[in-house]
Design goal:
single chain; alpha/beta; Rossmann fold; six-stranded mixed β-sheet; four-stranded antiparallel β-sheet; 10 strands; about 35% helix; about 25% strand; globular
């Protein structure tokens, strides 16, 4: 049987205020899966994605990612190279002056040469229909363009898993349909946090709902 890429066991997390949002969460993500993660606002969906890549640490439970139990920052550096997180707000992801610099940042950080990083930038932007964006000033892009460039920064790392946090937020219809077409043709396993049910129905292979701190099977199965 294929081993899961992620296996979370008994994850518990409470904010500094004392409010517990995750209370014994168990989650498995297998190669090729596109898992929809739904639930009401404030239930801990984004927190769970952050825990998966070590941006937050649970108070209890175990995280097995890519065949190893992860506990310390060194462990999570490897995880973050293999699991790309698309933040809910693209402005949290884009911080370089130009699009090319933003997309090249990850590959360079992984030790790629400038020549290799340049090739990855060109290939990634072309795959997203962003040829000619290399020298565009990032903060001047439209909301939809920022979303696609943020996705480019993630894909440039060539991750095995994509963690997508509300990827259709603030997108117009045309950009949303473009994003769906792009994601449908990507090979990576995904965890998709979204309130956009139509978007999830076009992408997800399985769905779970975070409620009361625990993951439950989604009442509306994904076709």
């Amino acid at each position: 049987m294929t081993e899961p890429l992620f296996q979370l066991r008994g994850i518990r997390y409470a904010y500094d205020s004392g409010r517990t949002v995750l209370e014994g969460v168990d989650l498995q993500l297998y190669p090729g899966e596109r898992l929809a993660l739904t639930g009401p606002n404030g239930c801990g969906k984004t927190t769970l994605l952050h825990i998966m890549v070590g941006l937050r640490r649970p108070q209890a439970g175990e995280i097995d990612a890519f065949g190893k139990v992860r506990a310390c920052e060194q462990d999570y550096r490897e995880v973050r190279a293999l699991a790309g997180l698309l933040f809910q707000d693209p402005d949290d992801q884009l911080f370089c002056p130009t699009v090319a610099e933003d997309v090249a940042f990850g590959p360079l950080n992984l030790g790629k040469s400038r020549v290799q990083a340049h090739a990855i930038v060109q290939k990634t932007l072309a795959s997203l229909g962003l040829v000619g964006f290399e020298e565009r000033v990032t903060y001047k892009l439209s909301g939809g363009e920022k979303r696609l460039v943020a996705l480019a920064t993630v894909l440039a790392m060539e991750p095995a898993v994509l963690l997508l946090d509300e990827p259709t937020n603030a997108l117009d219809r045309q950009t949303r349909e473009r994003l769906i077409a792009i994601l449908q043709h990507l090979p990576q396993a995904m965890v998709i946090v979204s309130h956009d049910q139509d978007f999830l129905e076009q992408l997800a292979t399985r769905s779970v709902c975070l409620e009361g701190g625990r993951l439950l099977p989604e009442c509306k199965p994904i076709p």
